[in-house]
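Predict structure. Input: Guanylate kinase, 219 residues.
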Amino acid sequence: MTTGGHGTDGVERRGLMFVLSSPSGAGKTTLSRLLIERMPGLRMSVSATTRAMRPGEVDGRDYLFVDKPRFEAMVKGDELLEWATVFDNRYGTPRGPVEAALSAGQDVLFDIDWQGTQQLREKARADVVSVFILPPSAADLEKRLHSRAQDSDEVIRKRMSRASHEMSHWAEYDYIVINHDVDAAFAEVQSILKAERLKRERRVGLVGFVRSLQGQLQG
Ligand SMILES: Nc1nc2c(ncn2[C@@H]2O[C@H](COP(=O)(O)OP(=O)(O)O)[C@@H](O)[C@H]2O)c(=O)[nH]1
Ligand SMILES: Nc1ncnc2c1ncn2[C@@H]1O[C@H](COP(=O)(O)OP(=O)(O)O)[C@@H](O)[C@H]1O
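Output follows.
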């Protein structure tokens, strides 16, 4: 599904789809923001959602906030690459921006749940790299949900009670990062992305590059 761009070393490679998932509150939004700030060549996929906007969120930056009929129309019109129901709300990935970014040689970062990750994997296994973020403990998870101070106590209780179910999907992911400390977890996630960008299979320009090197040596 990708056509490819150039790596930092000038060798052409296919773009990759970098997925972060975790139980709510484990830190994927924090880590995603750092990745987008600090990793050139990476674009965030902005999901559509029917959930209410939280204080501080911006429409079009954090999510595309849509009503249920609009979401249904996007599903019917095949405008979503994947979609799922989470916490009684619908969430989905608009297809157009992802395909445009990959075609322009960019990598795309997804903050989506395990259901969406499964759907992406079915569509583009070779291009999907998935990371599951775990909290260091249940107490830390609860503290983080409260410290974010953006959800009611009832919503936080719901998110805590779903955490165990969400975590049961950890073994479907390529990498597992435990988010004790933001800087350390960021360094780990960044290392994964850097290494995956160098994978031989997605560096489609290597054959030509090596041939040219050999030509120079024989020259
Ligand atoms: N499948 C899917 N899941 C999504 C999408 N966007 C967000 N999610 C997931 O929906 C869940 C709830 O997200 P949100 O309401 O922002 O709360 P958060 O868990 O605190 O980030 C998280 O697990 C997100 O990863 C999407 O486009 N598709
Ligand atoms: N390693 C960490 N130590 C302490 N607090 C953290 C850590 N990582 C994230 N947080 C805080 O926890 C809260 C939930 O993080 P967030 O990134 O919104 O999680 P998610 O997107 O997975 O729901 C936020 O207030 C965030 O600042």
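The domain at 5-199 is CATH 3.40.50.300 (Rossmann fold).
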